[in-house]
């Protein structure tokens, strides 16, 4: 079983404090604050990182499912929009938008594969309590 790590450090009160998020692999380390999370200040935030994880997981899952169906994608690009409600401190939804180039596939098969990937990717499963939508577009 594979285990991945990430760390967070926070200093100060919620509005005036600041923190740092780091991935165990060393691939990313960034500052975060109340302003970067709930306003438009510079820095990252947990929701942005969840979005990156979800977009990456979905794209790989779609590639896997397409491969099992006999298709090899030349490109899959996925955007994840994570919505957080500051009043309830809840992630209320994640909207996935993917655009893929998959030679030889028909629209119905592509849509089925995309929906199977949305339901089956490990990050989608981990976020099962969150409304997840998908807009899947096939480039021709």
Describe the structure.
There is one protein chain. Strands 1-2-3 form a three-stranded antiparallel sheet. A three-stranded mixed sheet has the order 4-5-6, covered by helices on one side. It contains four helices and six strands. It is elongated. The protein folds into two domains: 6-38; 46-139, 2-Layer Sandwich (GMP Synthetase, Chain A, domain 3). With 140 residues, the chain is an alpha+beta fold. The model has no long low-confidence stretch (mean pLDDT 97). A hairpin with a 4-residue loop joins β4 and β5 (90-101).
Short description:
The protein folds into 2 domains: 6-38; 46-139, K homology (KH) domain (GMP Synthetase, Chain A, domain 3).
- The largest beta-sheet arranges its strands as 1-2-3
Any idea of the CATH class of the largest domain?
Alpha Beta
Q: Output the CATH topology of the largest domain.
A: GMP Synthetase, Chain A, domain 3
Mean of residue pLDDT values: 97
What is the percent of helical residues?
25-40%
Helix/strand/pairing class, anyone? alpha+beta
What is the assigned CATH homologous superfamily of the largest domain? K homology (KH) domain
